[in-house]
Specification:
The chain is an alpha+beta fold. It folds into two domains: about 170 residues, no CATH class; about 220 residues, no CATH class. The chain has 13 helices and twelve strands. The radius of gyration is 33 Å and the shape is elongated. Belongs to the ABC-4 integral membrane protein family. This is ABC transporter permease.
Length: about 400
């Protein structure tokens, strides 16, 4: 293989060769970043969330009657709901919450030690902490473990306390990461905070994985007791026909009080997938764009090789007449594609970094690495070789005598 001769041949078609190299460089950059997005999306989906999702259903209930504006009536219906659901054969456990783990939006509070100086601002990491108003069995239903202290008991119910006074100080549970950041080197149990007295520290689980502090959370045993607030029931059900189970749950709630809108009953597995839908959808979109770009590049490689062969029939015929074997001719045609691919592989580093930096301005992008880059280069190399294979194979069919007749 004469590299110098190949370069001369490529220079005769500078524009076509340059365009092909540009396409290959762009394809490598797009493919590498698509691969990074796919790996990141799959890693997010496979990451342990720290709580049980199997056979756990969740659904929101919205009152449609003015009667629910009365807090006592609201709470009495919630008690009836809980009892009705707990009595169903398909239900193993039930609780309520104002928001789910792995959920965007919701309630956020700041937290600080009660002795924190009033003239000092709250540290940024302790501002905007997801705050959950949950039932007594919230942690038990999710099968999350207490790291320190205890779980909620009946005496921790702060619903009535808040109804009587907005300044009520409840007992609270906070997540382990938050506790260790708020009280480094000491136990948080028993500490008095701006949100209440800490009675328990729950082991970390996925609360807001896309935030800077994904495991920070404040939990209060409380029902909002307001028709305007979000009320979500979480139900641990027995394995079986989910469609039937969902209908049984709907019927039980409608029997308690029909004037309510029961939103879609979803599994926590589906909720988990929905939370990362943006990441998976983006990865899918870029994968489709990469596949399209790869197809266009393969067509360009085919056209480039086909045009190259058609213009060099005389030269190929002379080589065949001088004793060049079929595999020598095949190697000659493929070598030009390999040289173009090698040049594109060298320039592709710039494309990968540039596309990664552009995407990082609008989304959270993982950084490129050598392995992902090499994988994409190999894919592009194999695709180009496959596209060039047919013209190269046809070249070996040129008979020496046929080619020399045109001289």
């Amino acid at each position: 293989m004469n590299i110098k001769a190949l370069f001369k041949s490529m220079l005769l078609r500078k524009f076509a060769t340059g365009l092909l190299i540009f396409q290959l460089v762009l394809t490598i950059g797009l493919a590498c970043n698509s691969l990074l997005l796919s790996i990141d999306a799959n890693e997010k989906l496979s990451r342990d969330v720290g709580f049980d999702m199997e056979n756990v259903l969740a659904f929101q209930v919205r009152p449609t009657s003015e009667a629910f504006l009365d807090a006592d009536f609201f709470l009495s219906v919630v008690d009836e709901d809980m009892a009705a659901l707990a009595n169903l054969n398909v239900v193993e456990m039930v609780t309520y919450t104002n928001q789910l783990p792995l959920m965007r939006g919701g309630n956020y509070h700041s937290i600080e030690d009660i002795n924190h100086p009033e003239d000092m601002p709250v540290e940024r990491q302790f501002s905007g902490i997801p705050t959950y108003y949950v039932g007594q069995d919230f942690f038990k239903l999710l099968d999350t473990q207490m790291h320190l202290g205890r779980n909620f008991n009946a005496g921790d119910n702060a619903t009535r306390g808040y109804l009587e006074s907005p300044e009520f100080e409840p007992n609270i549970v906070i997540s382990r990461s938050l506790a260790e950041a708020l009280y480094p080197g000491e136990s948080a149990v028993g500490k008095q905070t701006s949100e209440g007295r800490i009675v328990g520290v729950v082991s970390d689980f996925a609360i807001r994985p896309t935030r800077a502090y994904p495991h920070y959370g404040i939990f209060k045993f409380r029902n909002m007791a307001r028709a305007q607030s979000r009320l979500i029931y979480m139900v641990k059900v027995a394995p079986g026909d989910l469609k039937h189970t969902k209908q049984v749950i709907r019927d039980a709630l409608k029997k308690v009080h029909p004037e309510r809108d029961i939103r879609e009953i979803i599994t926590m597995e589906d909720h988990h997938s929905d939370y990362f839908k943006q990441a998976t959808s983006l990865a899918t979109l870029f994968s489709l764009l990469t596949a399209f770009m790869l197809l266009v590049t393969m067509i360009s490689c085919f056209a480039h090789a086909h045009f190259h062969v058609s213009k060099q029939k005389k030269l190929i015929g002379i080589r065949r007449a001088l004793g060049a074997r079929k595999k020598d001719v095949l190697l000659y045609v493929l070598s030009e594609n390999w040289l173009v691919s090698a040049i594109a592989a060298g320039l592709g580093v710039v494309s990968v970094i540039a596309i990664n930096m552009l995407l990082a301005n609008v989304i959270l992008m993982p950084k490129p690495d050598v392995m992902s880059y090499l994988i994409c280069v190999i894919i592009v190399f194999i695709s180009g070789t496959a596209a060039t294979g047919l013209p190269a194979w046809k070249t070996t069919k040129i008979a020496p005598v046929t080619a020399t007749r045109t001289l």
